[in-house]
Amino acid sequence: MSKVFEWPIRVYYEDTDAGGLVYHSRYLHFLERARTEWLRALGFEQDALAQRPGVLFAVRWMELDYRLPARFNERLLVHSQVAELRRASLVFAQEIRRADDGVQLLGARVRLACLEVVRHRPCPIPESVLREIQNEL
User: Fold this and answer.
1) Cross-strand bridge partners of residue 105
2) How many domains are there within the chain?
3) For residue 137, how far is the Cα from the chain centroid?
4) Segments forming the whole domain that contains residue 80
5) What is the 3-state secondary structure (H, E, C) of 8-31?
6) 75: which residues sit within 8 A by CB, 6+ positions away?
7) Handedness of CA 4, 6, 94, 106 (dihedral sign)
8) Is 17 a catalytic residue?
């Protein structure tokens, strides 16, 4: 497993249902933001990768374990780390925790596939990106 990358999130009203709890699909947004910020912290912007070398990362598979609900206005921390690295894919282990007490609200495993932008076919992760990910392991 790689180093843990931590990204803070605040729960906004738009993230909640009528009961004031985070709507289940919003957790996917939180996880995605954290993976995007992880990639940015490595020095890569997704729009730039799409331009050159012409790749994108797409969710191939996801497993979620909803443990406890998050509520309106809570501060959360999304923990992300690479659990598995292959030539054309990687698996993230992610957690969402309440920032105030560290209680885990959600656990996730997410496989991302590296795809060619034009054909949407699997391709190897670019060497420059692969090197930076390997430096994090």
Assistant:
1) none
2) 1
3) 16
4) 5-136
5) EEECCHHHECCCCEECCCHHHHHH
6) 8, 9, 10, 11, 98, 99, 100
7) positive
8) yes
Active-site choice (17, 65, 100, 101): 17
Say if residue 109 is exposed, middle or buried (CB neighbours under 10 Å; 0-12, 13-18, 19+).
middle
**Alpha-carbon span 27 to 127, nearest angstrom:** 31
pLDDT per residue as tens digits for the range 50-92: 999 999 999 999 999 999 999 999 999 999 999 999 999 999 9
DSSP-derived letter for residue 129 is: H
CA 71 to chain centre: 20
Q: What is the rounded end-to-end Cα distance, in angstroms, of the chain?
A: 6
Question: What is the pTM (predicted TM-score) of this model?
Answer: 0.95
CA distances from 72 to 3, 46, 54, 76 (A): 29, 30, 39, 11
Q: What is the CATH number of the domain that holds 100?
A: 3.10.129.10
pLDDT tens-digit readout, 18-49: 999 999 999 999 999 999 999 999 999 999 99
